[in-house]
Design a protein that fits this description.
The structure holds 2 protein chains of 2 kinds. Chain A is α/β, with parallel strands linked by helices. Chain A folds into 2 domains: 2-244, 3-Layer(aba) Sandwich (Rossmann fold), CATH 3.40.50; 252-382, Rossmann fold (3-Layer(aba) Sandwich). In chain A, 41% of the residues lie in helices and 19% in strands. Chain A has helices at 7-17, 32-43, 57-69, 80-95, 120-124, 138-153, 182-188, 215-244, 270-283, 301-307, 328-336, 358-370, 386-391, and strands spanning 2-6, 22-25, 50-53, 74-78, 101-106, 131-134, 161-166, 174-178, 205-206, 252-255, 262-266, 288-293, 295-297, 313-318, 343-348, 376-377. A 7-stranded mixed β-sheet of chain A has the order 3-2-4-5-7-6-13, sandwiched between helices. Chain A has a 6-stranded mixed β-sheet with strand order 10-12-11-14-15-16, sandwiched between helices. Chain B is α/β, with parallel strands linked by helices. Chain B has 11 helices and 10 strands. Classes of the chains: A alpha/beta, B alpha/beta. The A-B interface holds A 21-22, 24, 48-50, 52-56, 58-60, 62-72, 74, 88-89, 92, 96, 198-200, 203-211, 214 and B 38-41, 43-44, 50-51, 54-57, 59, 61-69, 71-72, 74-87, 92-93, 110-111, 113-114, 117-118. β9 of chain A pairs parallel with β2 of chain B.
Amino acid sequence: MKKFLEGSWAIAEAAKLCRPGVISAYPITPQTHIVEHLAQFVADGEIDAEAINVESEQSAASVVLGSQNAGVRSFSATSSQGLFLMAEVLFNIAGMRLPIMLVCANRAISAPINIWNDQQDSISLRDSGWIQLYAENNQEAVDLMIAGYKIAEDSKIMLPIMVCIDGFILTHGMETTDMPSQEEVDKFLPKYNPPFKLDVNNPMSFGLLGDPSVYTEARFSVQKTFDDVIPMINKVGKEFQSAFKRDSVRLVEEYKTDDAEVVLVTMGSLCGTIKDAIDAQRANGKKVGLLKVVAYRPFPKAAIAQGLKSAKFVGIIDKNISLGSDGALYTEVKSLLNDSNKQISGFIAGLGGRDITITTINNIIDLTEKEENHCKFVDVKKELLWEEFHAS
Amino acid sequence: MPADREHFAENLFVSGHTACSGCGQSLAARLVMNVAGPNTMVANATGCLEVFSTKAPETAWGVPWIHSLFENASAVASGIEAALKHTGQIDKVRVIAQGGDGGTADIGLQALSGMLERGHDILYICYDNEAYMNTGIQRSGLTPFDAHTTTSPAGKQSTGNPTVKKPLVEICAAHHIPYAATASVGYPQDVQKKVKKALDIRGPKFLQIHVPCPLGWRSDPAATLEIAKLAVQTALYPIVEYEYGKLVKVMKIASLKPVVEYLKLQGRFKHLFKNEEELKKVGAVAEKNCEYYGLK
């Protein structure tokens, strides 16, 4: 049923529809509304779950690690500093092959302390062994969550999944969202039935010491599984489309790329702004397109190469930066297309909630066509920089 | 019982692990597990016990057992307990979280406090061997006064660890949980009585067991139990029980022994025997314990 909902409400309702038995989270802006809504669902008896109010994100992640290992579907959500406090546990969860879902309401990282949106938090956890999917809008967030559990919990996968949602822009934005019914979700998403769990009738030990004779193989097997996640996203995406009539569960989305000479590449809510900019530019006869990356882990190399096939100029926009190097998405796309004769540029934009307007996008399109740019910060206020301070 | 589980028929924590000879912790773990029984799930912090008992692909544990990280055993156990509630098993299955003194009193203290405060039905066991032994004998918040460790070494200007033990059992009791107690592996029946008592109570419980470490304490592996008993008999390790925040019982010391009888058996206190003044200070710690807990 279509409803006009705040993003956090839609996300909380999507979590509820997936019937997690244990929910644990710790408050942090801009994720808070999600757990507040879930707490209310539990308080009102609308969901049969244990909600554990912990004393830190470190413990939130540890609680869901314990509950999921005991065989119960579990859910958590966080942002920014909270995600970083979880970091040690998140790597551990992936190594222990626990298909937990975590919603990351993307937010900038301190210092300076900043509660607004960019994607530095989840991008910094890209090596953790979690599947990472980025939503463009609230509808996609809901869809990726429902499909996400099915992808993660498949016995061939058994990896955790992070659904990344731009903080404030989506979490606090009101949008019309088509919420599936409980019956529809129950039909689509099977009960969680892990092959191994803590069970007094079949006692097993988990989290053993892996010395040099076995550690490499444990890591190798996670990497091998990521190869299987790519077809699994496609498979579950097709099942999702036939069940819910939406094609939102996919590796990438190609927007007007067929004949495009300039193609921008990015992730998350920025794609909506870019689509508007593209429509306006196309009305003026300019062949521009967008490749939206939904799955960042696993990194869908073939789908990205396919989407950029016709492009002469590629502009990659990162809402993050690997300080001392480049934007994360730029680095990987550039490495993928290294042998091509395309002109590939990388832009850093939207850090700490700085607005990315259609004017900014038009400027990026011009720069992409004009020359090759590396790690080009857009909209930098020179008057705030140290050099300018000394020069004045 | 299936053939591959026959070795768990008598004990749920079995030999074959790689603990040092004379390890007090491995002995205490066996005492605990034999009382806890098969309907128990264990969440273990990183540390000696985890490392020496579960090197892949082997395990010494006959019950469902999980190790995640160093500081989060209490939170992992909280999640297990929540899952048991959700699946309706909480009345049949007991949950134990356990770790060493560093994993409990230092890096894991916040998660432990959260677990106690939230009222989970979990018994937390701290195996207190008074230093970070797994990483090579570094001081923890539970290292005793004047003990030599690799990060509180005795030297020309140092007499070893400058602080007394953190009052961990009181910190736990201050959460007004149903049960918080100390025990010593030197008194195995007392350990087992307390584990049984704790597991019969619904809600959060805490038990701190003194477990000598021959490697870290520089002591004779054959003297582990003797040393453990002497710690109690010299009043350097008070054996106490709290219920809902109140001290309800202490193990009285019939004839208090001088602290040197305990100290002289351990290389970690060797430097004190050239220093009368410091020996007196250790004696004062014992006297204070006697007075504070009413041990005599």
